[in-house]
Write a structure and sequence with these properties.
Layout: E1 10-13, E2 16-19, H1 28-43, E3 44-47, H2 49-55, E4 60-65, E5 70-77, E6 80-84, E7 90-92, H3 95-105, E8 111-120, H4 130-138, H5 143-147, E9 149-159, E10 162-163, H6 168-179, E11 185-187, E12 190-194, H7 195-208, E13 215-219, E14 223-227, E15 231-242, E16 251-259, E17 265-271, H8 277-288, E18 293-294, E19 307-308, E20 314-319, E21 321-323, E22 333-340, E23 345-353, E24 356-358, E25 361-365, H9 379-382, H10 394-397, E26 403-414, E27 417-427, E28 440-447, E29 455-462, H11 465-479, E30 485-486
Parallel strand pairs: 3-14, 9-11, 18-23
Antiparallel strand pairs: 1-2, 2-7, 4-12, 4-13, 5-6, 5-8, 6-7, 8-9, 9-10, 13-14, 15-16, 15-19, 15-20, 16-17, 17-22, 20-25, 21-24, 22-23, 26-27, 26-30, 27-28, 28-29
Helix pairs in contact: 2-7
Length: about 475
Amino acid sequence: MTLLDHSLLKQKVGNYLTGKADALTDQALLQRVRMRRRQLGQMTIAVDRDSAKRKIPAGDYHISRKIDGEFTCLVYSEGEVFTINPGGTIRTGAPFHDEAKATLDAADVTFAVLGGELYVNRADGQRPRVHDVVRVARAPEDEDAVASLQFGVFNIYEWDEEERSTRYVDLFDRIEALFGSGKRVHPVETIVGDGHKAVLKQFKAWVDGEGAEGVVARNDTAGVFKVKPRHTIDLAAVGFTEGLDDRSGMLHDIMLAVIRNDGTYHIIGRVGGGFSDDQRASMLKMLEEHVVDSDYAEVNSDRVAYRMIRPGIVLEISCLDIIARTSRGNTIDKMVLEWNEEESTWEGVRRLPLCSIISPQFLRLREDKTCSVDDIRFAQLTDIVDIPSADIISEELRLPASEILQRSVATKVMKDATMVRKLLLWKTNKEEQSGDYPAYVLHLTDYSPNRKDPMKHEVRVSSSLEQLEDYWKVWKKKYFVSGWNVL
Protein backbone atom coordinates (compact mmCIF):
# COMPACT_ATOMS: atom_id res chain seq x y z
CA MET A 1 0.00 0.00 0.00
CA THR A 2 1.33 3.44 -0.94
CA LEU A 3 2.09 5.83 1.93
CA LEU A 4 1.50 8.95 -0.19
CA ASP A 5 -1.52 10.40 -1.94
CA HIS A 6 0.28 12.02 -4.87
CA SER A 7 -2.82 14.03 -5.81
CA LEU A 8 -2.14 16.19 -2.73
CA LEU A 9 1.46 16.94 -3.74
CA LYS A 10 2.54 19.88 -5.91
CA GLN A 11 4.95 19.58 -8.81
CA LYS A 12 7.89 21.98 -8.49
CA VAL A 13 10.46 21.14 -11.17
CA GLY A 14 10.49 17.99 -13.30
CA ASN A 15 9.59 15.00 -11.12
CA TYR A 16 10.22 16.85 -7.88
CA LEU A 17 7.05 17.11 -5.75
CA THR A 18 6.38 18.62 -2.36
CA GLY A 19 3.41 18.71 -0.01
CA LYS A 20 2.16 18.63 3.56
CA ALA A 21 1.46 15.80 5.96
CA ASP A 22 -2.16 15.52 4.83
CA ALA A 23 -0.75 13.60 1.82
CA LEU A 24 0.24 10.74 4.17
CA THR A 25 -2.07 7.76 4.19
CA ASP A 26 -0.66 6.87 7.63
CA GLN A 27 -0.65 9.96 9.86
CA ALA A 28 1.15 8.05 12.63
CA LEU A 29 4.31 8.32 10.53
CA LEU A 30 4.53 12.07 11.16
CA GLN A 31 4.26 11.48 14.90
CA ARG A 32 7.10 8.96 14.73
CA VAL A 33 9.28 11.46 12.88
CA ARG A 34 8.56 14.12 15.50
CA MET A 35 9.32 11.62 18.24
CA ARG A 36 12.71 10.90 16.65
CA ARG A 37 13.54 14.61 16.51
CA ARG A 38 12.45 15.07 20.12
CA GLN A 39 14.41 11.98 21.18
CA LEU A 40 17.54 13.27 19.46
CA GLY A 41 17.20 16.66 21.16
CA GLN A 42 16.76 15.08 24.58
CA MET A 43 19.80 12.84 24.28
CA THR A 44 22.11 15.49 22.75
CA ILE A 45 24.30 17.56 25.06
CA ALA A 46 25.47 20.84 23.54
CA VAL A 47 28.95 21.97 24.59
CA ASP A 48 31.56 24.44 23.42
CA ARG A 49 35.27 23.78 23.02
CA ASP A 50 36.14 24.51 26.65
CA SER A 51 33.31 22.60 28.30
CA ALA A 52 33.89 19.61 25.98
CA LYS A 53 37.09 18.88 27.94
CA ARG A 54 35.08 18.56 31.15
CA LYS A 55 31.86 16.99 29.95
CA ILE A 56 32.87 14.38 27.37
CA PRO A 57 33.89 11.22 29.29
CA ALA A 58 36.48 8.70 28.19
CA GLY A 59 35.48 6.13 25.59
CA ASP A 60 35.38 5.44 21.88
CA TYR A 61 33.30 7.92 19.89
CA HIS A 62 32.01 8.09 16.37
CA ILE A 63 32.91 11.69 15.55
CA SER A 64 30.98 13.27 12.68
CA ARG A 65 31.19 16.54 10.82
CA LYS A 66 27.99 18.48 11.64
CA ILE A 67 26.06 19.39 8.52
CA ASP A 68 24.19 22.70 8.56
CA GLY A 69 21.02 21.32 7.06
CA GLU A 70 17.49 20.28 7.97
CA PHE A 71 16.76 17.28 10.17
CA THR A 72 14.77 14.96 7.93
CA CYS A 73 13.68 11.33 7.81
CA LEU A 74 13.91 9.32 4.60
CA VAL A 75 11.11 6.74 4.32
CA TYR A 76 11.24 3.63 2.12
CA SER A 77 8.18 1.42 1.73
CA GLU A 78 8.05 -1.34 -0.90
CA GLY A 79 9.89 0.74 -3.48
CA GLU A 80 8.33 4.09 -2.58
CA VAL A 81 10.75 6.75 -1.31
CA PHE A 82 10.11 10.19 0.17
CA THR A 83 11.42 12.45 2.93
CA ILE A 84 9.46 14.12 5.71
CA ASN A 85 10.60 16.63 8.35
CA PRO A 86 9.06 17.25 11.80
CA GLY A 87 7.09 20.19 10.41
CA GLY A 88 5.25 17.78 8.11
CA THR A 89 6.83 18.86 4.80
CA ILE A 90 7.02 15.97 2.34
CA ARG A 91 9.41 15.84 -0.62
CA THR A 92 9.86 13.20 -3.32
CA GLY A 93 11.13 12.79 -6.86
CA ALA A 94 14.52 14.52 -6.50
CA PRO A 95 17.65 12.72 -7.77
CA PHE A 96 18.70 11.89 -4.19
CA HIS A 97 15.34 10.15 -3.67
CA ASP A 98 15.98 8.09 -6.80
CA GLU A 99 19.46 7.16 -5.59
CA ALA A 100 18.09 6.11 -2.18
CA LYS A 101 15.43 4.00 -3.88
CA ALA A 102 18.00 2.16 -6.01
CA THR A 103 20.13 1.40 -2.95
CA LEU A 104 17.26 0.23 -0.76
CA ASP A 105 15.62 -1.76 -3.57
CA ALA A 106 18.77 -3.88 -3.57
CA ALA A 107 18.99 -4.13 0.24
CA ASP A 108 16.38 -6.83 0.85
CA VAL A 109 14.20 -4.51 2.95
CA THR A 110 10.48 -3.81 2.79
CA PHE A 111 10.22 -0.79 5.07
CA ALA A 112 12.86 1.56 6.50
CA VAL A 113 13.10 4.99 8.15
CA LEU A 114 16.51 6.70 8.08
CA GLY A 115 17.53 9.80 10.01
CA GLY A 116 19.74 12.40 8.39
CA GLU A 117 20.42 15.95 7.30
CA LEU A 118 18.98 17.31 4.06
CA TYR A 119 21.40 19.88 2.68
CA VAL A 120 22.53 21.65 -0.49
CA ASN A 121 25.83 20.76 -2.14
CA ARG A 122 26.87 24.27 -3.10
CA ALA A 123 28.49 24.79 -6.48
CA ASP A 124 30.83 27.45 -5.05
CA GLY A 125 32.41 24.95 -2.66
CA GLN A 126 31.25 26.84 0.45
CA ARG A 127 29.86 24.87 3.38
CA PRO A 128 26.11 24.17 3.20
CA ARG A 129 23.77 26.39 5.18
CA VAL A 130 20.22 25.69 6.32
CA HIS A 131 19.08 28.78 4.37
CA ASP A 132 20.10 27.03 1.16
CA VAL A 133 17.88 24.05 1.97
CA VAL A 134 14.90 26.27 2.65
CA ARG A 135 15.42 28.21 -0.58
CA VAL A 136 16.15 25.29 -2.90
CA ALA A 137 13.84 22.63 -1.44
CA ARG A 138 10.88 25.02 -1.26
CA ALA A 139 11.17 26.74 -4.63
CA PRO A 140 13.99 25.38 -6.84
CA GLU A 141 14.78 27.46 -9.91
CA ASP A 142 15.57 24.53 -12.18
CA GLU A 143 16.52 20.85 -12.26
CA ASP A 144 20.15 21.65 -11.43
CA ALA A 145 18.96 23.21 -8.16
CA VAL A 146 16.95 20.08 -7.32
CA ALA A 147 19.99 17.94 -8.15
CA SER A 148 22.03 19.89 -5.58
CA LEU A 149 19.92 18.46 -2.73
CA GLN A 150 21.77 15.73 -0.84
CA PHE A 151 21.07 13.59 2.22
CA GLY A 152 23.66 12.77 4.91
CA VAL A 153 22.55 9.63 6.79
CA PHE A 154 23.40 9.40 10.50
CA ASN A 155 20.93 6.82 11.83
CA ILE A 156 18.62 3.95 10.93
CA TYR A 157 15.46 4.32 13.00
CA GLU A 158 13.39 1.46 11.58
CA TRP A 159 14.33 -1.51 9.41
CA ASP A 160 11.33 -3.70 8.61
CA GLU A 161 9.90 -4.67 12.02
CA GLU A 162 13.11 -3.97 13.92
CA GLU A 163 13.87 -0.93 16.09
CA ARG A 164 17.57 -0.16 15.65
CA SER A 165 18.19 3.45 16.61
CA THR A 166 19.88 2.84 19.98
CA ARG A 167 22.72 0.60 18.73
CA TYR A 168 24.63 3.31 16.94
CA VAL A 169 28.03 1.59 16.55
CA ASP A 170 26.52 -1.41 14.76
CA LEU A 171 24.18 0.87 12.83
CA PHE A 172 26.93 3.04 11.42
CA ASP A 173 28.67 -0.02 9.98
CA ARG A 174 25.37 -0.83 8.26
CA ILE A 175 25.02 2.77 7.02
CA GLU A 176 28.56 2.64 5.60
CA ALA A 177 27.84 -0.67 3.88
CA LEU A 178 24.64 0.66 2.32
CA PHE A 179 25.59 4.20 1.35
CA GLY A 180 29.40 4.36 1.54
CA SER A 181 29.72 4.66 -2.24
CA GLY A 182 26.72 6.98 -2.59
CA LYS A 183 26.93 10.33 -4.35
CA ARG A 184 23.77 12.14 -3.25
CA VAL A 185 22.86 9.88 -0.31
CA HIS A 186 25.84 9.09 1.88
CA PRO A 187 26.92 8.55 5.49
CA VAL A 188 27.83 11.70 7.38
CA GLU A 189 31.61 12.08 7.38
CA THR A 190 32.75 10.15 10.47
CA ILE A 191 35.90 8.90 12.17
CA VAL A 192 36.35 6.89 15.37
CA GLY A 193 38.40 8.39 18.21
CA ASP A 194 39.05 8.13 21.93
CA GLY A 195 37.60 10.70 24.34
CA HIS A 196 37.50 14.46 24.24
CA LYS A 197 40.99 14.81 22.79
CA ALA A 198 39.95 13.05 19.59
CA VAL A 199 36.74 15.08 19.46
CA LEU A 200 38.59 18.38 19.81
CA LYS A 201 41.20 17.30 17.26
CA GLN A 202 38.43 16.94 14.69
CA PHE A 203 36.87 20.19 15.88
CA LYS A 204 40.16 21.94 15.13
CA ALA A 205 40.43 20.29 11.71
CA TRP A 206 36.83 20.67 10.55
CA VAL A 207 35.60 23.79 12.35
CA ASP A 208 38.73 25.89 12.77
CA GLY A 209 40.39 24.64 9.61
CA GLU A 210 37.49 24.24 7.18
CA GLY A 211 34.70 26.37 8.64
CA ALA A 212 32.32 23.50 9.45
CA GLU A 213 29.35 24.21 11.72
CA GLY A 214 30.55 21.83 14.43
CA VAL A 215 31.13 18.17 15.29
CA VAL A 216 28.89 15.49 16.76
CA ALA A 217 30.34 12.73 18.96
CA ARG A 218 28.29 9.59 19.63
CA ASN A 219 28.86 6.82 22.14
CA ASP A 220 26.21 4.19 22.91
CA THR A 221 26.83 4.57 26.66
CA ALA A 222 27.78 8.23 27.14
CA GLY A 223 25.27 9.64 24.64
CA VAL A 224 25.53 12.32 21.97
CA PHE A 225 27.62 15.49 22.27
CA LYS A 226 27.27 18.42 19.89
CA VAL A 227 30.38 20.62 19.96
CA LYS A 228 30.02 24.05 18.36
CA PRO A 229 31.77 27.41 18.56
CA ARG A 230 29.90 30.02 20.56
CA HIS A 231 28.05 32.73 18.63
CA THR A 232 28.57 36.38 19.59
CA ILE A 233 25.61 38.77 19.19
CA ASP A 234 24.89 42.42 20.00
CA LEU A 235 21.39 42.91 21.46
CA ALA A 236 19.31 45.69 22.97
CA ALA A 237 18.42 45.63 26.67
CA VAL A 238 14.66 46.26 27.04
CA GLY A 239 13.92 45.10 30.60
CA PHE A 240 15.38 43.62 33.78
CA THR A 241 14.53 41.89 37.05
CA GLU A 242 16.09 42.10 40.50
CA GLY A 243 17.23 39.12 42.56
CA LEU A 244 15.22 37.81 45.51
CA ASP A 245 16.04 37.30 49.20
CA ASP A 246 19.83 37.36 49.70
CA ARG A 247 20.25 38.47 46.06
CA SER A 248 18.11 41.56 46.61
CA GLY A 249 19.86 44.69 45.38
CA MET A 250 21.52 42.73 42.60
CA LEU A 251 20.57 42.16 38.98
CA HIS A 252 18.89 38.83 38.24
CA ASP A 253 18.63 38.95 34.45
CA ILE A 254 18.14 41.24 31.47
CA MET A 255 15.51 40.91 28.76
CA LEU A 256 17.05 41.23 25.29
CA ALA A 257 15.76 42.14 21.84
CA VAL A 258 17.05 42.27 18.30
CA ILE A 259 15.95 45.16 16.09
CA ARG A 260 13.98 44.21 13.00
CA ASN A 261 14.59 45.99 9.71
CA ASP A 262 11.57 48.25 10.30
CA GLY A 263 12.89 49.46 13.68
CA THR A 264 10.64 47.35 15.91
CA TYR A 265 12.17 45.36 18.78
CA HIS A 266 11.79 41.58 18.73
CA ILE A 267 12.31 39.93 22.13
CA ILE A 268 14.73 37.04 21.78
CA GLY A 269 15.30 36.00 25.40
CA ARG A 270 17.14 36.81 28.61
CA VAL A 271 20.69 36.69 29.87
CA GLY A 272 21.46 36.01 33.52
CA GLY A 273 24.92 34.45 33.35
CA GLY A 274 28.35 35.96 32.93
CA PHE A 275 27.93 38.81 35.47
CA SER A 276 30.14 39.20 38.52
CA ASP A 277 28.42 40.21 41.77
CA ASP A 278 29.92 43.70 41.47
CA GLN A 279 28.48 44.01 37.98
CA ARG A 280 25.08 42.82 39.17
CA ALA A 281 24.97 45.56 41.81
CA SER A 282 26.22 48.38 39.57
CA MET A 283 24.15 47.39 36.55
CA LEU A 284 20.96 47.20 38.63
CA LYS A 285 21.48 50.82 39.71
CA MET A 286 22.17 51.87 36.13
CA LEU A 287 19.13 50.11 34.70
CA GLU A 288 16.81 51.52 37.39
CA GLU A 289 17.56 55.00 36.05
CA HIS A 290 16.00 54.07 32.69
CA VAL A 291 12.68 52.50 33.81
CA VAL A 292 9.67 53.41 31.64
CA ASP A 293 6.02 52.40 31.26
CA SER A 294 4.93 49.50 29.06
CA ASP A 295 1.61 48.05 27.95
CA TYR A 296 3.40 44.70 27.57
CA ALA A 297 4.28 42.63 30.63
CA GLU A 298 6.33 39.48 31.10
CA VAL A 299 7.70 37.56 34.09
CA ASN A 300 10.90 35.60 34.62
CA SER A 301 11.28 32.02 35.89
CA ASP A 302 10.75 33.23 39.48
CA ARG A 303 7.46 34.90 38.45
CA VAL A 304 8.99 38.34 38.92
CA ALA A 305 7.77 40.93 36.41
CA TYR A 306 10.33 42.61 34.20
CA ARG A 307 10.75 46.34 34.61
CA MET A 308 11.00 47.79 31.13
CA ILE A 309 13.65 50.36 30.25
CA ARG A 310 14.14 53.04 27.63
CA PRO A 311 16.05 51.71 24.58
CA GLY A 312 19.69 52.72 24.39
CA ILE A 313 21.74 50.09 26.24
CA VAL A 314 23.49 47.49 24.07
CA LEU A 315 24.92 44.21 25.39
CA GLU A 316 27.28 41.81 23.70
CA ILE A 317 26.47 38.22 24.59
CA SER A 318 27.65 34.80 23.54
CA CYS A 319 25.46 31.73 23.11
CA LEU A 320 26.13 28.10 22.37
CA ASP A 321 23.41 27.64 19.79
CA ILE A 322 20.52 29.39 18.04
CA ILE A 323 17.39 27.32 17.42
CA ALA A 324 14.63 28.47 15.07
CA ARG A 325 12.26 25.47 15.31
CA THR A 326 10.81 23.29 18.04
CA SER A 327 11.28 19.53 18.01
CA ARG A 328 7.88 19.32 16.28
CA GLY A 329 9.04 21.62 13.51
CA ASN A 330 6.97 24.58 14.71
CA THR A 331 8.24 28.15 14.67
CA ILE A 332 9.39 29.78 17.92
CA ASP A 333 7.19 32.86 18.19
CA LYS A 334 8.29 35.83 20.29
CA MET A 335 6.71 39.22 21.00
CA VAL A 336 7.50 42.24 18.85
CA LEU A 337 7.50 45.61 20.66
CA GLU A 338 7.45 49.17 19.39
CA TRP A 339 8.97 52.10 21.28
CA ASN A 340 6.65 55.12 21.46
CA GLU A 341 9.08 57.99 21.91
CA GLU A 342 6.35 60.59 22.34
CA GLU A 343 4.69 58.70 25.20
CA SER A 344 7.94 57.13 26.50
CA THR A 345 6.36 53.70 26.60
CA TRP A 346 6.63 50.27 25.05
CA GLU A 347 3.69 48.99 23.01
CA GLY A 348 3.10 45.34 22.17
CA VAL A 349 2.63 44.68 18.46
CA ARG A 350 2.26 40.90 17.95
CA ARG A 351 4.13 37.63 18.12
CA LEU A 352 6.22 36.56 15.13
CA PRO A 353 8.65 33.71 14.46
CA LEU A 354 12.14 34.27 15.83
CA CYS A 355 14.46 31.82 17.64
CA SER A 356 15.82 30.73 21.00
CA ILE A 357 19.35 31.39 22.20
CA ILE A 358 20.92 28.49 24.07
CA SER A 359 23.18 29.09 27.09
CA PRO A 360 23.52 32.89 26.75
CA GLN A 361 26.37 34.57 28.63
CA PHE A 362 26.99 38.30 29.16
CA LEU A 363 30.29 39.49 27.71
CA ARG A 364 30.30 43.29 27.96
CA LEU A 365 28.39 46.53 27.49
CA ARG A 366 28.80 47.95 23.99
CA GLU A 367 29.03 51.67 24.70
CA ASP A 368 30.26 52.17 21.14
CA LYS A 369 26.92 50.98 19.73
CA THR A 370 23.40 52.37 19.70
CA CYS A 371 19.97 50.80 19.51
CA SER A 372 19.72 51.14 15.75
CA VAL A 373 18.92 48.86 12.82
CA ASP A 374 22.58 48.98 11.77
CA ASP A 375 24.12 48.17 15.17
CA ILE A 376 21.57 45.57 16.38
CA ARG A 377 21.20 43.93 12.98
CA PHE A 378 18.49 41.34 12.47
CA ALA A 379 20.90 39.70 10.03
CA GLN A 380 23.01 38.59 13.01
CA LEU A 381 20.37 35.86 13.36
CA THR A 382 19.24 35.27 9.77
CA ASP A 383 22.86 34.72 8.77
CA ILE A 384 22.81 31.67 11.09
CA VAL A 385 19.25 30.29 11.01
CA ASP A 386 16.25 30.55 8.73
CA ILE A 387 13.57 32.76 10.33
CA PRO A 388 10.15 32.91 8.60
CA SER A 389 8.58 36.38 8.19
CA ALA A 390 11.99 38.02 8.65
CA ASP A 391 11.20 40.70 6.08
CA ILE A 392 7.79 41.76 7.42
CA ILE A 393 7.61 45.51 8.08
CA SER A 394 5.69 47.34 10.79
CA GLU A 395 2.70 48.16 8.58
CA GLU A 396 2.19 44.43 8.06
CA LEU A 397 2.73 43.64 11.73
CA ARG A 398 -0.37 45.47 12.88
CA LEU A 399 -3.26 43.13 13.51
CA PRO A 400 -6.76 44.09 12.33
CA ALA A 401 -9.00 45.95 14.76
CA SER A 402 -11.67 44.01 16.63
CA GLU A 403 -15.35 44.47 15.80
CA ILE A 404 -17.99 44.73 18.54
CA LEU A 405 -21.01 42.58 17.65
CA GLN A 406 -23.22 42.97 20.74
CA ARG A 407 -23.05 45.09 23.87
CA SER A 408 -25.40 45.26 26.84
CA VAL A 409 -25.03 47.14 30.17
CA ALA A 410 -27.23 47.05 33.26
CA THR A 411 -27.04 48.79 36.63
CA LYS A 412 -28.59 48.28 40.05
CA VAL A 413 -28.43 50.48 43.15
CA MET A 414 -28.12 48.80 46.57
CA LYS A 415 -27.13 50.45 49.84
CA ASP A 416 -26.41 53.67 47.97
CA ALA A 417 -23.87 51.87 45.78
CA THR A 418 -24.24 51.32 42.05
CA MET A 419 -23.51 47.85 40.71
CA VAL A 420 -22.71 47.35 37.04
CA ARG A 421 -22.90 44.32 34.77
CA LYS A 422 -21.70 44.47 31.17
CA LEU A 423 -21.86 41.87 28.44
CA LEU A 424 -19.65 42.30 25.38
CA LEU A 425 -19.37 40.05 22.33
CA TRP A 426 -16.78 40.82 19.69
CA LYS A 427 -15.03 39.40 16.65
CA THR A 428 -11.24 39.69 16.93
CA ASN A 429 -10.51 39.61 13.16
CA LYS A 430 -7.05 38.32 14.17
CA GLU A 431 -7.43 34.55 14.21
CA GLU A 432 -5.95 34.01 10.74
CA GLN A 433 -2.89 36.21 11.36
CA SER A 434 -2.01 34.99 14.86
CA GLY A 435 -2.58 31.84 16.85
CA ASP A 436 -2.75 33.99 20.01
CA TYR A 437 -6.32 35.08 19.23
CA PRO A 438 -9.64 33.23 18.98
CA ALA A 439 -12.19 34.24 16.38
CA TYR A 440 -14.87 35.39 18.85
CA VAL A 441 -14.87 36.49 22.50
CA LEU A 442 -17.74 36.86 24.99
CA HIS A 443 -16.88 38.80 28.15
CA LEU A 444 -18.91 39.52 31.30
CA THR A 445 -17.88 42.27 33.71
CA ASP A 446 -19.61 42.13 37.09
CA TYR A 447 -18.84 45.10 39.39
CA SER A 448 -20.23 45.34 42.92
CA PRO A 449 -18.51 47.85 45.28
CA ASN A 450 -20.05 46.25 48.40
CA ARG A 451 -18.48 42.88 47.67
CA LYS A 452 -15.16 41.70 49.14
CA ASP A 453 -13.95 41.18 45.56
CA PRO A 454 -15.64 44.09 43.74
CA MET A 455 -14.67 43.14 40.17
CA LYS A 456 -15.40 39.75 38.65
CA HIS A 457 -15.02 38.53 35.07
CA GLU A 458 -16.16 35.59 32.98
CA VAL A 459 -14.85 34.87 29.49
CA ARG A 460 -15.75 32.45 26.73
CA VAL A 461 -13.88 32.13 23.43
CA SER A 462 -14.82 30.18 20.33
CA SER A 463 -14.39 29.84 16.59
CA SER A 464 -18.19 29.63 16.33
CA LEU A 465 -20.31 32.78 16.54
CA GLU A 466 -23.44 30.70 16.99
CA GLN A 467 -22.00 29.05 20.09
CA LEU A 468 -21.24 32.38 21.78
CA GLU A 469 -24.62 33.82 20.77
CA ASP A 470 -26.19 30.91 22.68
CA TYR A 471 -23.99 31.77 25.69
CA TRP A 472 -25.07 35.41 25.31
CA LYS A 473 -28.73 34.44 25.71
CA VAL A 474 -28.02 32.23 28.75
CA TRP A 475 -25.86 34.85 30.49
CA LYS A 476 -28.25 37.70 29.83
CA LYS A 477 -31.09 35.69 31.30
CA LYS A 478 -28.94 34.70 34.29
CA TYR A 479 -27.35 38.09 35.12
CA PHE A 480 -29.84 40.70 33.87
CA VAL A 481 -32.63 39.64 36.21
CA SER A 482 -35.42 41.59 37.84
CA GLY A 483 -34.21 44.76 39.56
CA TRP A 484 -31.45 45.43 37.04
CA ASN A 485 -31.92 48.46 34.83
CA VAL A 486 -30.75 47.77 31.26
CA LEU A 487 -29.26 50.96 29.78
